[in-house]
Amino acid sequence: MLVSLTRIGASRQGLDKAFAVVGTTHDAAAHALSRADLRLGGRQVGVTAGTQGLFSLRLPLSWLGTRPARDDLFTELGTLLDAVAAIVERAGGALVSAGVAPQRTKAVPGGDVHVLEVLSSVEQEVLCNVLRSWVPTLIALTGTGTTTGAAPPDRIGSRWLAGSNAHLSTRFLASTARNHLDRVKAELRRKDGVAQLDRMDVSPADLPDGGLAVVVRCTDAAVTLAGVRAQALLMSALAMHARRLVRDGRRAGHQPQRLLEENRARAITDGMRARFEVEDRKRGSVRGKRPARESARRLLRDLCVEFRNLDADPAELAPFLLALDLPGLGLRGGAAERDLLARWAGAGDAELLSRCRSALTNPAPGGPLLAELTSSAPGRVAVVLGEWRRGIAEAGTGRAARRGDEA
User: Fold this and answer.
1) 349 and which of 20, 56, 102, 249 could share a cystine (Cβ 3.0–4.6 Å)?
2) 125-179: pLDDT as tens digits
3) Looking at the record's lineage, which domain of life comes first (predicted)?
């Protein structure tokens, strides 16, 4: 008996999960981690040493198309990060989120890198261009700034991108097919001075097994393991959306480069407080501004069909949904994961270090943010998650259309 049929499915995803080590030298931590036998799903996982105090775990491509598959992978990833934390502790240090540091220590910001497998060069091109149009929103949605014990909260959207000289705004790609890509690269080099595509926020890439992928490197390192899961689920939904466009014979629109670069700069500076310029396509001009919060809400709403196909529960997206919707229900502060960091830092270094390790190893969907807000504001959390649960369940149905007409 046929139980279900999925015409647009998820592909494999990889991840470079950034983390920081404090309390010991970079070389001592790198030496200890280089000798560790770390495995995920039976496969060897490598640790890459980055800038001073910053490291990343390179996770192999994995399929995350169902909730049980995500449960299994992130439970195993939590165990893996706990093993990393134990190794670092034996070396005299402590594992913390990238961009976090105790008092009298400099925080080192970093970002998580997502790798999305695609089925063809056409899908690769469409996904690159779809992501390009949403880069400012992704930066605003995932930005965490930095947190240092006893220091005032950082109001910068993404301190990592603000200080980076290795990131370029993504350019529109007319094609990523192998017989066209050299000409595309030459044109971008001549016109925009972009000599290396892999320095862009979003870029096409080849996989070691001969497959194709899209690399996304504009998201700040997630504060919690629940945040990593939310980011991965969002990326999977965007990849499925691009696959749907290809199946329907459509492409992503070519938004003006200047508009995207200016909105990207606003997101880096102001995060969710930013206001993005909106293009009037008929007149070819700017018609007004939209709050970054509304842009992020629109992105997530547009992907509800894909979230339904991924069997997603709003709790998995809670690090995004609560930060977006709770302020509108009267909870003005403490609705985002960066607010958690500020509270932990205010309680002292011991609390900050302990909570950071726990947050990066706890595989529960929603993580500590959902747990704390459910305890302090259960009714409002239930309203937010319930509304999104209905939206995901009704996505693509007549009921969803009627609800949109009534809104």
Assistant:
1) 102
2) 999 999 999 999 999 999 999 999 878 888 999 999 998 888 999 999 988 988 8
3) Bacteria
Closest CA to 359 of 222, 158, 159, 219: 222
Backbone angles phi, psi at 202, to 5 degrees: -135, 130
Cα–Cα nearest to 314, from 376, 368, 392, 258: 392
All domains of the chain in start order, with CATH: 12-272+288-398 (3.30.590.20)
What's the rounded Cα separation, in Å, for the pair 187 and 219?
27
What is the Rg, in whole angstroms, of the alpha carbon atoms belonging to the chain? 21
Smallest CA-to-CA distance from 20 within 161, 184, 317, 222 is with 222
Asked whether 197 and 217 are in contact (CB, 8 A), the reply is no
Q: Token pair for residue 222?
A: 């997630």
CA pair distance 352, 346, nearest whole angstrom: 8
**Residues in CB range of 61: below 8 A, 6 or more apart:** 12, 13, 14, 115, 117, 207
SS3 114: strand
